Amino acid sequence: MRVIKESDLIDSIAEALQYISYYHPPDFIRAMAAAWEREENPGAKQAMAQILVNSRMCAMGRRPICQDTGTANVVIEVGAQARLELSGSLQDAVDEATRRAYQLDTNPLRASVVTDPFGTRKNSGDNTPAMLTTEIVAGDTVSVHVAAKGGGSENKAKFTVLNPSASIADWVVQTVETLGAGWCPPGILGIGVGGSADKAMKLAKASLNDPIDLHDLIRRGPSNRTEELRLEIAERVNALGIGAQGLGGLTTVLDVKIHSFPTHAASLPVGLIPNCAATRHVHFTLDGSGPARFEAPDLADWPEVLLDKAGANTRKLNLDDLNDEVVASLKPGQTILASGTLYTGRDAAHKRMVEMLDRGEELPVDLKGRAIYYVGPVDAVGDEVIGPAGPTTSTRMDKFTDQILGATGLKLMVGKAERGPVALEAIAKHKAAYLIAVGGAAYLVSKAIKDAKPIAFQDLGMEAIYELKVEDMPLTVAVDSEGNSIHKTGPAEWKRVPILA
């Protein structure tokens, strides 16, 4: 009987979490590069270029691909003939690995897990507990899948129970059309079909670890119903025209993965979980010979992509000289290189600011004529000014937008994905504007930040308010001062009739 030491398991999972924080899977890079080559919408193509450049920078610098370094998702399959030596529970061992990985001095990863989902939502500080799934399987080894799942894509998970005669493809396509861009497309759709409610979602999550092979499947053709369904869904979803970052374009999904399981005759459970442009996962097997070894991918897998910083639609914007006239001149889809002062503030900071305003208190920062960035950065290391600092999903701030704009005189907001009807109405009412940074390009974005200092709410950790000094920060105008949104006009322009219709 093979003996797998607890220390080997902990060391391997910890190293895997570090590894996937800065290395995209090579199959993802190849698929993204191919999508970038094919893309015809300049805005979407530039967004994918930023993702690819960011990925290469992270691989070289060994820093996180995205500021949301995710929850630790660990699936462990223990062979029935293997003996896994543990001093405590398996959860304890996996949590120790997670703790080590996320608190590593040379590459700290952002702790995002809160211990009380109902009330205080206090951060655990080390990203524990991990999301652990275990199973006893045949064999004498221990198989481990490690993934880091960000909140933006996880929040878009959906589940339904269809009538057995219903179309799975119809439900998936209709659902994806309602998800918006908060899951940071282009990415992967994981679909679980059958079993029970919990089984279907588990199948969907597991499918995201499969290799990307959509274009190989297109070339050889489907050989079973599952592959037919994958092709149909991929074609129909891409025909929606959502595109990279929701800007409109040819590619919304790089692949569609489906796992299925027998189910009740009266049921057709279907789970849907998207994976974002920060797809991060790795698999290893322990056989008792020591911890897993992870080989660095070949940098030749990354294409040489040059960012167009001086395109015809590019405009310089001074964040220290914002007024009604300047804001009114911003047009949806316009590429911006922003320089000047930019304040940070996301969910917790907005909630606290609104509470202060309700009590008639003065805010700790004057936002009149200023811009705010929805971000929770990774801690800096070495001589960094700030760690990877990509945008968070902006719709979570929608309910605060009208009051913040009206009470403070804030002029610009920067985040990712679309804004909802309430925010669009508030933006038009107060003649403000909303810009987006590329989700999945956090390290690249952080290089535009030349200075960063906390100025308020330091007890909120990564959600504290910082004053940033930025230089040529790449942004796209998403909503103008009249409330017109590129996330509506872009996909509408690129929507087409699918070939498989």
Task: Give an account of the 3D structure.
The chain has 501 residues and is α/β, with parallel strands linked by helices. The protein folds into 3 domains: 1-149 and 281-288 and 296-307, no CATH class; 151-277, no CATH class; 314-490, Fe-S hydro-lyase, tartrate dehydratase beta-type, catalytic domain (fumarase, Alpha-Beta Barrel), CATH 3.20.130.10. Helices cover 32% and strands 24% of the residues. It has 15 helices and 17 strands. The protein has helices at residues 6-22, 26-38, 42-61, 90-102, 151-154, 168-178, 197-207, 214-220, 225-238, 324-328, 347-358, 398-408, 421-430, 442-446, 486-494; strands at residues 2-4, 71-79, 82-84, 131-137, 142-149, 158-162, 187-195, 253-263, 268-275, 281-286, 314-318, 335-344, 371-373, 412-415, 433-436, 449-456, 465-479. Strand 14 (412-415), helix 13 (421-430) and strand 15 form a beta-alpha-beta unit. Helix 1 (6-22) packs across helix 4 (90-102), helix 2 runs antiparallel to helix 3 (42-61) and helix 12 packs parallel to helix 13 (421-430). It is globular. It starts with a strand and ends in a 7-residue tail after the last helix.
Low-confidence stretches: none
CATH architecture tag of the largest domain: Alpha-Beta Barrel
CATH topology of the largest domain: fumarase
User: If you compute it from the alpha carbons, what radius of gyration comes out, rounded to the nearest whole angstrom?
Assistant: 23 Å
| Coarse shape | globular
* Quantity of strands, as a count: 17
What is the helix fraction of residues, given as a range?
Answer: 25-40%
CATH class of the largest domain: Alpha Beta
Whole-number tally of structural domains: 3
- Profile the largest sheet: 5 strands, mixed, barrel
Average pLDDT, rounded to a whole number, is 95
Number of helical stretches of at least 4 residues: 15
Distance between the termini: 55 Å
CATH H-level name of the largest domain... which superfamily?
Answer: Fe-S hydro-lyase, tartrate dehydratase beta-type, catalytic domain
Strand content: 15-25%
Read across the widest sheet, the strand sequence of neighbours is: 12-13-14-15-17
Q: From the helix content, strand content and strand pairing, which structural class follows?
A: alpha/beta
